[in-house]
User: Which sequence fits this backbone?
């Protein structure tokens, strides 16, 4: 009987209109926020503000790509912020203290994230440590390692070429925005166009059924966590370049912004569902909110409260909408 | 004058957006009566029960409990009226004891203090009274699924329920355990409890029920006296047409041996399993729940690998450590539980249908949509899977159609050996007949099939030979001419000296 009801709505709809229907609430929320901000401030709609806002959210965009992968397979990675700090400091230490070339240093930085992810993946896949616990442990390890590697002090990088990675522009567009666009497209292709992408959805949707279908669950879990670690590490390197230094204390709590963006973007916390584009809308909402409150000179403690309330409202709206179905 | 019925539901209506789930449904159950409620999936049985249990509010109609107008707005209202529903899914807390579960929600004692010892004593009294071998202090997670099912039933009884609804209570019970259940039902009946019994298994309905109410398309079609009707008549009313051949099985000579299993064993689970399977053959596996049939099949398929013995496919030895190995060797398994092992319920029909064969149309970043479509169309047409589109979320399909998707998904992998574990569990009669016909067609195309089934008539009608398992061993292998329910049961229980 139920198929009949859905037949009327599903048949003949384009992928775009289905997407719009599923994401109507958050898209509307984003538009309303933008309209309000452009009316109430002079500076919101200027291209320099938009550019700087997009540049600022690029870190969260990468962490959200990483987080959504982990959430889709039914897990989470709460160590992402720590890998940002670790890879930034590792890269800086390699350049400044060990005289490594920039590409080699970047490779070490990415490797640090990959190793964190690999360890997570191995413990989750083979020892069945819950993802929350495994990644919480790794968060401590990575953060501690970042402090150790730097003696808890920022490591300055004087190399202009390295800084260019974070502050350079391509035809007026800050490079981090370019990275984000490339990352988002690559992730969308990965999830929608590859076998592994479908396996990822199947593992999160029903692990047992995936196993019975011949999907190599362990491989999927390990790959997802390694990719997540590398994405976070990349964000860390770009951040370090922007700050001309590797700082062990950066990115505290960034993983929670990534969870928030994923949730706002409708990624199901039970796994198995979620799209890259809607997660990015979640990233934009958080970015616009932060930017707008800054422009309106609102106390940063109020900003934290506002962020919490927006998440609660958005998720509640989604729950209520689904209940009506 | 007729005695007031225990329960009467009159002109119950329930609409969901776009669907008329209940259209003037009626149900009248007498005191001390076992009343079967039958119909195909989607006929409105479960909606009617959910209205009765206060899970869905109705959109019209009246309910009378012992002649009094009842207003059931939520689950607690229903409980207060003495209505207890035993759901098909187990709703027990696995980490708590049997007694804790039985008294969950109605814990005895004052000031919130729970006297556990007293609780265990009282629970054990109820259990002993029913003659069940269950320890009230034991943790639920240490019990078998069948025993857990019995705990659910005890829980309902301990409520002093006056009206008990059992939704497919035997779906995970062996025939022996089902007998215990039927004993319990008879006793409840003597105590004047009214029982509404939902099941797809015709044999059971005729064994335990007094009357049968048939539903179709949200309407009550008729109420029959069980002893004055036949399974055929009930089925005809359910589907609204004649089912000419329910079981479909063509007799034809079988081909070469495809699968050889020799002395397969797994410590503490099964041992010394040897059998052969030929092209076009259906080898049935009968036995009680816990006999090791499912465990054997999941081992052959590599989900829980075996630790000794040899498997040969087409004469070549294969080593199977994971489902992927089995797939490569040409073995496929349609698992026991469609929802838990067969499907990714929150994803689409298309996603599920092709999960086993993504290699055939995805290479790196290229998705060959035409090829994908071709695979999906092939099985959709062949099995007439009824779905509005491949983008439909699969949990919205009926059980029968879901099962056809699971079968499709495995046939798409083009196996030489197809293992079917309880292929018709929980699907309605119409869909069952379709599945039988699909299975028969497959064997005509030379596929070798293993069919594990707890439904005696099904396994006897479809199989060419039957392996009877008990205690993790094959007790005997029967040829078609020796099939009889008594013979199979006797071997399964182990009463016959070899």
Assistant:
């Amino acid at each position: 009987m139920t198929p009949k009801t859905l037949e009327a709505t599903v048949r003949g709809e384009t992928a775009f209109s289905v997407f719009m229907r599923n994401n109507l609430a958050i898209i509307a929320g984003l538009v309303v926020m933008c309209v309000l901000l452009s009316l109430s401030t002079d500076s919101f709609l200027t291209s320099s503000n938009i550019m700087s806002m997009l540049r600022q959210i690029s870190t969260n965009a990468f962490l959200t790509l990483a987080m959504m992968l982990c959430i889709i397979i039914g897990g989470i990675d709460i160590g992402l912020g720590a890998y940002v700090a670790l890879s930034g400091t590792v890269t800086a230490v390699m350049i400044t203290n060990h005289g490594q070339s920039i590409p080699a240093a970047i490779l070490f930085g990415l490797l640090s994230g990959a190793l964190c992810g690999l360890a997570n993946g191995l413990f989750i896949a083979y020892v069945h440590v819950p993802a929350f616990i495994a990644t919480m442990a790794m968060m401590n390890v990575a953060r501690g390692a970042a402090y150790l590697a730097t003696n808890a002090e920022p490591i300055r990088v004087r190399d202009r070429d390295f800084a260019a990675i974070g502050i350079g522009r391509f035809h007026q567009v800050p490079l981090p925005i370019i990275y984000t666009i490339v990352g988002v497209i690559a992730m969308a292709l990965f999830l929608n166009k590859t076998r592994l992408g479908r396996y990822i959805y199947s593992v999160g949707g029903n692990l047992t059924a995936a196993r019975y279908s011949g999907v190599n669950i362990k491989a999927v879990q390990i790959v997802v966590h390694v990719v997540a670690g590398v994405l976070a590490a990349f964000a860390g390197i770009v951040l370090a370049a922007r700050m001309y230094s590797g700082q062990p204390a950066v990115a505290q709590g960034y993983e929670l912004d990534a969870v928030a963006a994923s949730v706002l973007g409708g990624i199901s916390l039970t796994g198995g569902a979620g799209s890259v584009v809607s997660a990015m809308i979640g990233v934009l909402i958080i970015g616009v909110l932060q930017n707008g409150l800054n422009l309106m000179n609102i106390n940063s403690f109020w900003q934290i409260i506002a962020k919490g309330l927006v998440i609660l409202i958005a998720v509640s709206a989604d729950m209520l909408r689904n209940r009506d179905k | 004058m007729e005695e007031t019925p225990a329960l009467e539901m009159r002109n119950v209506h329930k609409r969901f957006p776009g669907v008329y789930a209940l259209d003037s449904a009626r149900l009248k159950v007498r005191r001390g009566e076992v009343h079967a409620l039958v119909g195909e999936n989607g006929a409105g049985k479960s909606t009617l029960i959910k209205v009765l249990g206060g899970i869905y509010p109705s959109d019209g109609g009246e309910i009378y409990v012992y002649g009094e107008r009842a207003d059931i707005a939520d689950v607690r209202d229903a409980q207060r009226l003495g209505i207890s529903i035993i759901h098909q899914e187990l709703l027990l807390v696995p980490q708590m004891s049997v007694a804790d579960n039985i008294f969950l929600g109605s814990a005895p004692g004052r000031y919130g203090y729970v006297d556990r010892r007293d609780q265990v004593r009282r629970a054990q009294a109820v259990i002993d009274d029913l003659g069940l071998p269950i320890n009230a202090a034991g943790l639920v997670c240490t019990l078998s699924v069948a025993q857990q099912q019995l705990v659910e039933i005890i829980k309902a009884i301990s409520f002093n329920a006056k009206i008990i609804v059992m939704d497919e209570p035997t779906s995970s019970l062996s025939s022996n355990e089902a007998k215990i259940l039927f004993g319990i039902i008879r006793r409840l009946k003597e105590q004047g409890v009214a029982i509404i019994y939902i099941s797809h298994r015709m044999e059971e309905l005729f064994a335990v029920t007094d009357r049968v109410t048939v539903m179709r398309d949200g309407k009550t079609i008729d109420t029959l006296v069980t002893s004055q009707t036949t399974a055929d008549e009930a089925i005809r009313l359910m589907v609204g047409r004649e089912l000419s051949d329910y079981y479909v099985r063509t007799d034809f000579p079988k081909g070469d041996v495809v699968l050889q299993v020799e002395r397969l064993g797994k410590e503490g689970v099964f041992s010394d399993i040897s059998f052969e399977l030929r092209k076009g053959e259906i080898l049935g596996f009968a036995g009680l729940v816990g006999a090791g049939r499912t465990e054997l099949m999941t081992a052959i398929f590599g989900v829980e690998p075996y630790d000794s013995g040899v498997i040969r496919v087409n004469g070549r030895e294969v080593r199977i450590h994971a489902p992927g190995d089995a797939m490569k060797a040409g073995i496929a398994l349609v698992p026991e539980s469609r929802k838990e092992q067969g499907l990714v319920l929150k994803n689409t029909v298309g996603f599920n249908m092709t999960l086993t064969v993504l290699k055939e149309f995805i290479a790196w970043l290229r998705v060959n949509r035409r090829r994908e479509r071709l695979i999906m169309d092939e099985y959709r047409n062949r099995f007439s899977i009824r779905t509005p589109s491949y983008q439909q979320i699969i949990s919205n399909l009926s059980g029968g159609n879901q099962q056809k998707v699971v079968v499709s998904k495995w046939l798409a992998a083009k196996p030489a050996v197809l293992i079917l574990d309880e292929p018709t569990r929980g699907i309605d009669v119409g869909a069952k007949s379709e599945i039988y016909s699909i299975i028969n067609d497959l064997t005509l195309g030379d596929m070798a099939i293993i069919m594990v089934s707890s439904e005696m008539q099904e396994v006897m009608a479809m199989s060419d030979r039957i392996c009877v398992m008990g205690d993790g061993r094959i007790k005997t292998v029967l040829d078609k001419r020796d099939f009889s329910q008594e013979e199979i049961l006797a071997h399964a229980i182990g009463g016959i000296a070899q």
Chain A touches chain B through 34 residues (CB under 8 Å). The CA atoms of residues 118 and 248 of chain A lie 21 Å apart. Residues 1-12 of chain A have pLDDT under 50 and may be disordered.
